[in-house]
Amino acid sequence: MSEGKIALLPDHVANQIAAGEVVQRPASVAKELIENAIDAGATRITLIIKDAGKTLLQVNDNGSGMNPFDARLCFERHATSKIANADDLFRLATKGFRGEALASIAAVAQVELKTKRAEDAVGQKVVIEGGKFIVQEECQTPTGTSFIIKNLFYNIPARRNFLKNDQVEQKHILEEVERIAIPHTSVHFIVNSNGNEILNLPAGNLMQRLKSLLGSYIQKELVPVEESTPYVKIAGYVSLPECTIKQRKEQFFFVNNRFIRSAFLNHAIYEGYKDLIGPQSHPRFFIFLDLNPSEIDINIHPTKTEVKFTDDKTVYMLLSSAIKRALGKANASPSLNFENEMSFAAPVQNGQPKAPSIGYNPSYNPFSNPAPADTRTNKAHWESMFEGFQNKQDTTEVIQQELSSIKSESVEFSPIQLNNKYIIAVWQQNVLIVDQQRAHERVLYEHYLKSNLQHPVASQQKLFPDQVELSVHDFTLVKELIPELKTLGFDIDVFGKNSLVVNGAPADMEGFNIPEILEGILETFRLNTIDAKVEKHDNLSRAIARNTCIRYGKSLDSTEMKALLQSLFACENPLYTANGKHVMMTVENTEIEKFFRK
Ligand code: ADP
Ligand code: MG
User: Fold this and answer.
1) Which of 9, 170, 246, 467 is most deeply buried (CB count within 10 A of its CB)?
2) Distance 190 CA to ligand 1 centre (A)
């Protein structure tokens, strides 16, 4: 018999292929290593990154450590201490279980492991590069485990080249950290990036953790949710209706302490808010569902962020009624019926200890659009002044006309920011108060408006194209707009029934959630079509600007403020948004003089 054509793939090749699924970017490595540390019972986990994890990504834990044998074996594919047979799959309490994370990571990086168990006098060091074993030797190391991952994708340049800039990659890493840190509040997390500590979350309760992540103001805006049945236990916090915000952010579901996405759970939450908030308002939520692991299938997606319940309907119903009840309890909803109240467990708001303020770096906010720092409470003062001044706009028209004709580069501003909302600058002894969101909206609007078929907006191709599911309504609309959207930098194609594939997006939308942005754009587009008969290209430019501009609540440094003011004054019309709203107010020098004469 002659030799056949089939050959088994060498292990390191198989691991490299598998790595494509597990390791997409530095953030995936951070996630896997931190989850392993949690599974090992660590109470303190430190993540150290250099260049957003591209050069170095290290995770130190004080968990169980490994014996010399496991220290070597853990890098083998399907090596796991967490399941012994297929039945165990249904009883899982740990994060990992496939035993492929370390093998995959080691296949595409240079890895050094140091580990020691409490009962051992010396530790073990193992070095593996590109899946090839280099050395194992004894070493001095504290009890616990430290993984150092250097030069991710060093042996796959194509993958390395496709990593985004450091800012974007770091944002992904911090998102993964949040998703693990929120449900594991008894673990102390520290993140250090390029030598600076950017996150320090001491152990505490859930509210303390949310306050460390988002700021102390969050406590006043949230109400506890609590619901318990034999099938599912629901707990967590949601926004008061009056504290909902304009963007969907800080919306988290955890099933058995694992972060998941779920459109239907999301829907259940909004159902709970029905008639209490407007269509443009979004609650923050941090919802924990606990079920017997046999009632869920969490493993239907390779990155394990989706979930199936054996009884979707019950979960939906319980969640939306738990939300209604929580809001009712908080007296947010006068129309609610309180008769059934006794049948539900009482929320546990009282006696919440005050969070220690240690360890929170106020200049860091893990969310892309930081939450406004108490703007609501401070609003009374500045906003009412701002509103009062608006009528006087005519008297300062002259200054504004002048401003719109000046050459932006010739202006030297020393702007300051107020309430993370307005930029205050002085120009020729007049005070300018610029609305940051409207200003940026204007800048973006003109940028997109200028594009045309000959000069399309630069588009960045995506390595992993986004697939977007749309309603029939949105799908019909978007199909008509595809050529127009191409001009504006969106490389989109129809992909089956009611869904699209986004191959590329405008280059300066890096870091945005494109499917979400696209939905927002369609919504705004449709509103504009109803409100004003605007031509397509103009309308889309407005919609994109509206959905991608910086928001109130974003803190800007002085370079960013200067850049924004300069681009604003380079606009054709810096004074108004496309929809005719004021971008800035000015307080004339002479007015100031007049006021202080009395
Ligand atoms: P999985 O987590 O799916 O089991 P991994 O490849 O992530 O697979 O890890 C393989 C094994 O290595 C784990 O099952 C565990 O026994 C061991 N291990 C990994 N990280 C640690 C750690 N930080 N502390 C102790 N043991 C670890
Ligand atoms: Mg694992």
Assistant:
1) 170
2) 20
CA–CA distance, 491 with 78 (Å, rounded to integer): 39
Q: Is 63 in the pocket of ligand 1 (CB under 6 A)?
A: yes
- Which residue from 562, 164, 171, 561 is spatially nearest to 365, judged by alpha carbons? 171
Strand partners, 379: none
Residue 32 CB–ligand 1 contact under 6 Å: yes
Q: Could you tell me whether strands 44-50 and 56-61 are parallel, antiparallel, or unpaired per DSSP bridges?
A: antiparallel
241 and 272 Cβ atoms separated by less than 8 Å: no
DSSP assignment of 176-245: HHHHHHTT-TTSEEEEEETTEEEEEE-S--HHHHHHHHH-TTHHHHEEEEEEE-SSEEEEEEEE-GGG-B
Quick one: CA dihedral 227, 228, 232, 235, positive or negative? positive
Is the CB of 38 inside a 6 Å radius of any atom of ligand 1? no
Cα(173) to centroid(ligand 1), Å: 20
For residue range 162-219, what is the model confidence (pLDDT) as tens digits? Answer: 888 898 899 999 999 999 999 999 999 999 999 999 999 999 999 999 999 988 889 9
Q: How confident is the model at residue 249 (pLDDT cuts 50, 70, 90)?
A: confident
Ligand 1 atom showing the smallest separation from residue 94 Cα: 2
Distances (CA, A) of 79 to 47, 82, 96, 491: 24, 9, 11, 42
Q: What is the largest CA-CA distance in the chain?
A: 109
Q: Which parts of 44-183 are beta strand (E)?
A: 44-50, 56-61, 110-116, 123-129, 132-139, 144-150
Instruction: Please name the residue that has the structure tokens 């380079």.
Output: 570
Buried b (16+ CB within 10 A) or exposed e, 404-435: eeeeeeeeebebebbbbbbbbbebeebebbbb
Q: Best mutation site among 15, 21, 22, 36 for ligand 1, i.e. most ligand atoms within 8 A of its Cβ?
A: 36
**Token pair of 592 as six digits:** 């100031």
214 CB within 6 A, ligand 1: no
As a whole number of angstroms, the distance between CA 583 and CA 85 comes to 64
Residue carrying structure tokens 């604003």: 568
The answer to whether 342 touches 332, Cβ cutoff 8 Å, is no
Structural contact between residues 225 and 238, judged by C-beta atoms closer than 8 angstroms: yes
Q: Is this structure's pTM higher than 0.70?
A: no
Contacts of the segment 134-142: beta carbons below 8 A, 24+ positions apart = 136/68, 136/71, 136/72, 139/114, 141/114, 141/115, 141/116, 142/62, 142/116
Residue 66 in contact with ligand 1 by CB distance below 6 A: yes
